[in-house]
Design brief:
The protein has 320 residues and is an alpha/beta fold. It has twelve helices and 13 strands. The chain has a six-stranded mixed sheet, with helices on both faces. A four-stranded parallel sheet has the order 2-1-6-7, sandwiched between helices.
Length: 320
């Protein structure tokens, strides 16, 4: 039976108080898919550290579960109650340094239940378990619902756009009509093909959030050096030091060059849009410029990076 055309562009589902209802956002995507004749068998879910813009997540049918960001006694849902711009303004002006916490198992269970009765299965892909408890929360929720519907929880071994590339690869396959096992295989294949590399303008936010030793952060400021960071087996590791953003861009260029050929590339930045644009032009040597996307580092990871982060996430081609 065809679905009734009960949704049209411009209608917004809201909760009391004017908040857009997250649960109904998923319903809106499903209704839109029904109107276009699409039937998606699998639901892809991720967390907000993936830094996938909401418009793109909606287009690909991805459900994003927000992590929590706290300034003092006030807690926000990343991407729902606080935008990237609002976050960086507060980071500069608030007397409190923000902290983050992962979604709890109940958050994931609530979202999973929305799809258990309407999908053949769920693929839930998350930030590296080596740097966040989000994956563990999702696993706990999966165990409570495993008798109700198939749920596969995948550790991406990355964050930000690295995680985003894995999630988007799975979501595109879902839109092509793939089944659960095919989507799981695609996600695992993407995990093995993704690489990340970038520069942090300062270490002070990493030190404030306990991610690096404060003595090291202070020394880097005195010496006027910036850390280059990458991922190894799910952990963030230092890949060198540079003195200028320009030198950092040169190193990111070398990183991409050494991993060619590539099929996808995303640039992530925090309040350095000009440098992100410059990097995009440089990297168009390796992939068509229109296939390079730029996104902003969200609040969930901006807590640790602050302004001045510039990253490149790539997915290596099959024959690499």
């Amino acid at each position: 039976m065809a679905r009734l055309p009960v949704w049209r562009e411009g209608i917004r589902f809201t909760e009391p108080g004017g908040q857009v209802c997250p649960g109904l956002a998923g319903l809106r995507r499903d209704i839109a898919a029904g109107l276009s004749g699409e039937t998606m068998k699998v639901q892809v879910i991720t967390d907000s550290t993936s830094d996938i813009p909401q418009e793109l997540a909606d287009k690909l049918g991805i459900r994003v579960v927000p992590i929590y960001v706290r300034f003092g006694e006030k807690t926000y849902r990343d991407g729902v109650d606080i935008s990237s711009n609002d976050f960086y303004s507060m980071l500069a002006s608030s007397p409190f340094h923000p902290a983050t916490s992962q979604p709890n198992p109940e958050d994931f269970a609530s979202v999973y239940k929305e799809y258990c009765d309407t999908k053949d299965g769920i693929v839930s892909i998350h930030i590296s378990s080596r740097i966040s408890g989000t994956y563990n929360s999702a696993m706990m929720a999966q165990k409570t619902l495993k008798s109700r519907c198939p749920i596969e929880v995948i550790d991406s071994k990355f964050n930000s756009a690295g995680l985003g590339l894995v999630v988007m690869g799975a979501a595109r396959l879902v839109q092509s009509g793939a089944g659960l096992s095919e989507v799981i295989n695609e996600a695992n294949r993407a995990v093995n093909q993704v690489r990340m590399f970038g520069i942090f303008e300062t270490m002070k936010y990493l030190a404030r959030s306990g991610r690096v030793n404060k003595t090291i952060a202070t020394a880097s400021g005195i010496l006027n050096v910036m850390p280059l960071l990458t991922f190894h087996d799910g952990e963030i590791v230092r890949a060198g030091l540079v003195r200028t953003i320009t030198k950092g861009i040169d190193r990111i260029y070398d990183f991409v060059k050494n991993n060619t050929p590539i099929s996808e590339l995303t640039i992530v930045h925090s309040k350095v849009a000009d440098q992100a644009g410059q990097l995009k032009q440089c990297l168009s040597e390796f992939i068509q410029e229109e296939k390079i996307s730029i996104t902003e580092l969200g609040a969930g990871l901006g807590v640790h990076g602050g302004p001045g982060v510039l990253l490149a996430a790539i997915r290596r081609s099959e024959n690499n």
